[in-house]
Amino acid sequence: MRLLLSMFAYPFILRAFAVGILVSLCASLLGVPLVLKRYSMIGDGLSHVSFGALAVAVACGFSPLWFSIPVVVLAAFFLLRVAEKSRVSADALIAVFSASALSAGILVTSLTTGMTTDVDSYMFGSILAMSRSDVVLSVTLTLAVLVLFVLCYHKIFAVTFDERFSRATGVRADAYKTLLSILTALTVVLGMRMMGAMLISSLIIFPALSAMRLFKSFRAVVVCAGVMSVVCFCAGLSASYLLSTPVGATVVICDLAVFLVCCAVERLR
Fold first, then answer.
1. Which of the residues 72, 140, 235, 240 could staple to 247 if both were Cys, CB 3.0 to 4.6 A apart?
2. Angular region, 50: left φ>0, alpha ψ -120 to 50, beta rest
3. Which residues contact 6 (CB under 8 A, 6 or more apart)?
4. What is the DSSP string of 98-148?
5. Nearest to residue 27, comparing CAs of 233, 176, 175, 266?
6. Buried (b) or exposed (e) across 224-248, using 16+ Cβ within 10 A?
7. pLDDT of 145-173, one tens digit each?
């Protein structure tokens, strides 16, 4: 317990908790409508797009976050539009985006700086990679994501469950679907510094799937997913400090353990 409490003496641990809690909360709330609309893998695709943008930013000497945010937002908007009008299924388009962006990022990295520590931290996550300015930007944007989600909760609920009926009642379904994709893109970019491009999508998928094993109503699933995500992140970060393991992988293992417990509870019911 003394060792566990000692980690709060380090400023980078406090920064990691502040950003990680907000990002995990945003990811879990957005994950519920994404999973229900079968867009759960969009987080994985956007994380790879973000890695490609970050690799270009590092190679050109730009600010990684400021450069990648508009690129990933545009990718999310474009992906949503193409998925609606193309004959190709959404999951196939996400796979194309994911593989192409990841390959482009690796090529740019190999031809310029090589796999430096900075690029590696974006690939697999690192709590040491977060500067004070990154924390300020991340906290500001995650709070904006949470406020927008709460304000548009009822519209997102309507579009998630019955898009045709929502259109018939005057709801601008396309606008709210675009908003959902933009909020997801922001969350993915902000969470990459902590979780890495390879693992950030787990924050979107696992809490939603776990909560759906226990509850049936949309509101209960959203609340439960948010609580589970924050608890799993705090437990994963604490275990990572005690065991000297990577933060992203440890958080994912905690999410997986909770998911398996929820599946067992569902079976017992």
1. 240
2. alpha
3. none
4. HHHHHHHHHHHHHHTT-S-HHHHHHHH--GGG--HHHHHHHHHHHHHHHHH
5. 233
6. bbbebbbbbbbbbbbbbbeeeebbb
7. 899 888 888 888 888 887 787 778 787 87
